[in-house]
Write a structure and sequence with these properties.
The protein has 237 residues and is of the alpha+beta class. The chain contains two helices and eleven strands, in the order αβββββββββββα. Helices cover 26% and strands 35% of the residues.
């Protein structure tokens, strides 16, 4: 009986480990409000031509979405209708697991305009974005005065467990513009693979089987005892 109990405990532990292996990693959310600086984000600028004034991002206390700070995007002089200014940061996700990565941000426009708007850009990728072609457009600036929200999501499978997230603005007209970006939120939610569900079912089945075997082993001595008592009452066999 002692050996059986030890085997049962071992089997339950193994089944529990199988269940733990099958469960997806928990979702994580990273929020940057840039209260004291760039919060680990790095700025990059790229344009096809070498003429004109480069754009630059700086920490600003002129305004903020939740507080009095944000990142100011000085877009340069817009020469050649060209140039993309962005911030980027690397995040960890489970290696080899399809993971939805979402990005949301607030962008401040000084005025509303339907003309001469710039493009709002994002990139979520396993490789570091280095040029304008690495980005997609998710909207335009100046759709309304004040803070305007933008969101984007993509599912990434990273062999190395690393993903790059970037967002910025692309020049579209030869004119100087200033914008502010704040409250950048990055969320990751791993998706369990079909094999994970199989492991989960296997683990649960193992625990159920062990508990069922335990009940049968406990019931067997009781049945045997009742049989012996019956034989004694009947004078034996």
């Amino acid at each position: 009986m002692v050996r059986f109990e030890q085997a049962t405990v071992s089997a339950i532990l193994i089944s529990s480990l199988i269940i733990a292996r099958s469960l997806p990693a928990r979702a994580e959310t990273f929020t940057s409000d840039f209260q004291t600086g760039f919060d680990g984000w790095q700025q990059q600028w790229h344009k096809e031509s070498t003429t004109g004034t480069d754009g630059v991002a700086t920490h600003s206390t002129e305004r903020g979405y939740n507080d009095g700070a944000s990142l100011k995007f000085d877009m340069g002089d817009g020469f050649g209708d060209d140039g993309t200014l962005w911030i980027e940061k690397q995040f960890a996700i489970p290696a080899g697991v399809p993971t939805p990565v979402s990005l949301s941000l607030q962008l401040f426009n000084q005025f509303q305009s339907d003309f001469n708007t710039f493009e709002v850009k994002v990139a979520i990728s396993t490789t570091n974005p280095n040029e304008q072609a690495d980005f997609i457009t998710i909207g335009s600036t100046d759709s309304a005065e004040g803070w305007v929200p933008f969101t984007y999501e993509d599912t990434i499978t990273s062999p190395t467990g690393q993903v790059w997230v970037a967002t910025g603005i692309r020049v579209a007209w030869e004119t100087h513009r200033d914008y502010w970006i704040d409250h950048v939120v990055v969320s990751t939610t791993p998706i369990p693979e079909p094999t994970s569900f199989a492991f989960l079912l296997l683990g649960l089945a193992g625990i159920v089987s062990m508990l069922r075997s335990r009940r049968l082993q406990v019931a067997h001595p009781l049945v045997a005892g009742l049989g012996e008592a019956s034989q004694i009452r009947n004078g034996g066999s």
